[in-house]
Amino acid sequence: MIDKPDSQGKIAIYPGSFDPVHLGHIDIAHRAAAVFDHVVVAVFDRPSKSLRFNTEDRVRLFQQGLKRDNIEVIPYSGLTIDLARKVGARAILRGLRATSDFEYEYQMTTMNRHLEPTIEAVFLMTSLEYAYLSSSIIKEVAAQGAPLEGLVPEHVASALRGEAHDR
Ligand code: ADP
Question: CB within 6 Å of ligand 1 — which residues?
């Protein structure tokens, strides 16, 4: 027999630093939004790496790149699993590029499962064209003034060039 859907539908959270969001992240969020009823993109406020954009900007830049209305973007701090519980998520979603992502994700998933066995980890493969993209490589090429077309949305390219943008 088929399960009845939850009253709010199936929710997934997609956590990350998103410093800044690029087309690979947006691709994963849109793919997830076609599978889940609601996707909460969760922008971690204090990752253990130096940031180019503050939390508010990282949230806004992601929001401005979205085309579906069942995706929302929020900031968060603390444990991802606590946020997942708070929003009633059934799954924590992560994007996978290459096998190099696997080991870290495996470790995180094992820890999250230890903390909360009822919330699943779901991995989506990126489109091939974005498989080489990372926020850090984008920041490096942006710092050298290289063109950013095909890597990030135009409003993110402007932000990386330090241009004023609509709030
Ligand atoms: P972090 O894991 O340090 O927060 P990011 O904010 O860049 O790193 O990534 C957030 C999520 O998006 C992670 O699941 C990451 O694997 C995924 N991701 C990053 N780059 C890509 C890409 N090019 N294609 C698909 N998923 C990606």
Answer: 16-18, 24-25, 28, 47, 94-95, 97, 101, 126, 130, 133-135
